[in-house]
Structures are given as structure tokens and as C-alpha cells.
Hints:
Helix content: 40-55%
Number of helices: 12
Number of strands: 5
Amino acid sequence: MVPGWQAVTLADSPEIGAPALRALRDHHDRGGTVASVCAGAEALGRAGLLQGRRCTTHHDVQDELARRHPGATVVRDVLFTADDRVITSAGIASGIDLALHLVAGRHGPAVAAKVARDMVVYARRNGHDAQSSAMFRHRSHLDDTVHHVQDLIDARFDHPLPLPALAAAVGVSERTLTRLFTRATGLTPLRYQQTLRLERAQHLIGHGATLEAAARSVGFEDARMLRRLRARAA
């Protein structure tokens, strides 16, 4: 991870020694992920890691980054980009979004959502995806019972979660839970779980997983249900 730094232009960036640039290249060559925040993208450019890849940086220096590294594709108006294990973020605060993306990729969206809630920030993704996870789009209500059930589903959305078990966990009937949940979120508990599974599967497919592998990873027996959900969301 390369942090940002304060400089009027990228040309004014601090000196980055050859050993540090070589370490970045070697880490990526070994299959590791490299990332930068704000002006830190300049270090990745000097290491040759932006060549032929999409990247971004703070809007004040995006044009300069494109001039200094013409082999890179500088993307405007996104929080961060991810291209072949090279991840770059825009301004300083977008480094949080980048970090949450890394946590979600390694540990799943439920863990990333918990970290985001603890930090009191939104679990956002990049500019080409919806800007908030379903875990947050359906949380703008004040029903504690529904919040509790959502916590249970968030943590185990890739497992079978029968309605009777969810209702028993919060001490209400199945009918009452369905009514409360639908009124608060606009979805039934099952549809909410399916939405989380679909989001996670789309993330995995976007990172190279097959449809079948993604379906099994999120708890489906095979890809048929995932195909139906993707068609419904299209």
C-alpha cells in the first residue's frame, strides 16, 4: 500500500528509491496486490505497474498522471479502480473505500459491512458499481427487530436461513417477521438474502470466477438460481 503525500504536482513528489520501486514490482510479480491512495499512484507509475492498466488519483493531478504515464488509462470520477491486482484510489477519503474493497475481497462483504458500520461510513464500491451495498440500502429504518434479523442474514447469507429460525431468533411469529421486514426494507427476508448472494456472486464473477463457482460460493446448489436472479436484475 502506497500512501498519498502533499505536493502541488506529481513532479514535486518526494524521491522514491529504486529498492522501493523494485519491491512493488516484485510483490506484484509474485501474485500480490499493490494499492495506492491519492498521489501514491505516481509511485506505481514509476514502478511500471500502471502500464496498460486502468487507474485513478486525486482529481487535481489526474491530467498530470496521464501525461507522465501515457501507457496508463486514467479514469475520472471514480472512487477507486482495480485492474489486475493494481488498485488505485482518488482523494484521501476514498482510501477508506479502497480498504473496504480489499476487506470484502479477502473476507467477504459481511465483514466489510461490519467494519464500515463500526467506522460509521458507507460500504461503497467503485464508480462503475452501485454506490452502496444492499447491506446499507435497506438499513434506513428504525425497526430494531428487523435490524437484528438483517445482522443475522448479513453474517450468514451464504447458508440456509429458514424463516422459522429467523423468527425464533427475534421472538416473533413468521408472519409478523415477514410483515415487519417487508415494511422496513421493501423486501422479504428471503429476497434480501438473495440480493446479498447476487451482489457477492457478481463481485466474484467480476474477479474471474465462473458462474458455477460463484453460485456455489454464495450458497446455491448450482448456477440455475443465480442465472434467474441475474436475469431479473438486468
